[in-house]
């Protein structure tokens, strides 16, 4: 972990950095983790190197490493977003059947994905907006259905529109209650009873969270501020 | 020993209207010379089964641009605006399949299984029109095998017997598709004498391979 990065005052932190740092705390030593492209991939920047965490890219590598130096890319080694990567010592390259066997078979400790909507049941919609965006689900449905823990990393609302909603209006990714929702405003745990507000973002009040959430939230007396190192 | 053929000879083997399984993930591990030859021949009306549509100018994206594809069975088309436009215009019929389900449906075809039974897709649009099985209290979708008339795959090395070895993330769908194509055509980057690829390193046994592209001139 880069000490200089970790010491930067949070006043200057972007929403995405707050989210990535908070999600990073969910990752424990020795885990096998799959990070989605975009915001979720930023989480890797905040995992201590001595944790021995392996990152999986579903296109076929366990033990994803950093971007190679300019001009040293291997055309046969990319992440699931198509970006050039390296492989760490101890890495394994696998075919897609093995890769998704690992995902579906419950061998993946955690997946971190972006979200378009999450609802009171804890169901995630993150792969299409009918009539507007139909890119295909790629590996998202298998990841949400199969990973041991599913963490949704997303900004809390989209252009003023709530993303944490009573019931998803967009097509679901899976009928599985996700494990945790992390936004720049809140950490929310979907439970059998509903969405439990676990933590507030830095300098965020509970009212701020409620104002940008259209679902019901279960709020206990004390909602601690998230610690983001 | 096998006879290596030129890409244009290989392209002549694949008729218009064929169902082709094509290896690759966003163009990584895709048989590019094979695709170039198919485009040059002016192939039409293909059903392409692949992980994704790559992007314009790369891999499967070239077939899309050339108007060679009428049907696509893929997990992701989001990086290729052309296929999205053609889908909306009704020129290409697209079936979106979760990636893990797609590879298992292809594998099922290749290994003689009648279906894949998976929890992936339950409660989503993927479930529509499919049989649902309840096994030990859990619900699963019944997903049918996907056979290919041809599998067009890429490998890092082939030996003279057609044994194949793949590199890093260029494995992806290639070793699975080698089982599921009635005719399998491989485009290796290197062709090496028998014995160079140790038996333990062979991912696709040469007995599955029908044709091999000659090395690039």
Defining key terms:
heterodimer, A: 229 residues, alpha/beta, Glutaconate Coenzyme A-transferase, ten-stranded mixed beta sheet, three-stranded mixed beta sheet, 5 helices, 15 strands, globular, disordered N terminus, B: 217 residues, nine-stranded mixed beta sheet, three-stranded antiparallel beta sheet
Characterization of this structure:
The complex is a heterodimer of chains A (229) and B (217). Chain A has 229 residues and is an alpha/beta fold. Chain A has one domain (3-218): Glutaconate Coenzyme A-transferase (3-Layer(aba) Sandwich). In chain A, 16% of the residues lie in helices and 25% in strands. Chain A has a ten-stranded mixed sheet with strand order 4-3-2-1-5-8-12-13-14-15. In chain A, strands 7-6-11 form a three-stranded mixed sheet, with no helix packed on it. Chain B is of the alpha/beta class and 217 residues long. Chain B is built from six helices and twelve strands. Chain B has helices at residues 7-13, 32-41, 60-65, 81-88, 99-111, 174-180, and strands at 4-5, 19-22, 46-49, 69-74, 93-96, 116-118, 132-135, 138-143, 148-159, 164-165, 181-192, 211-213. In chain B, the strands form two sheets. In chain B, strands 1, 2, 3, 4, 5, 9, 10, 11 and 12 form a nine-stranded mixed sheet that branches. Chain B has a three-stranded antiparallel sheet with strand order 6-8-7. The two termini of chain B are 20 Å apart. The interface between A and B is large, with 40 and 45 residues.
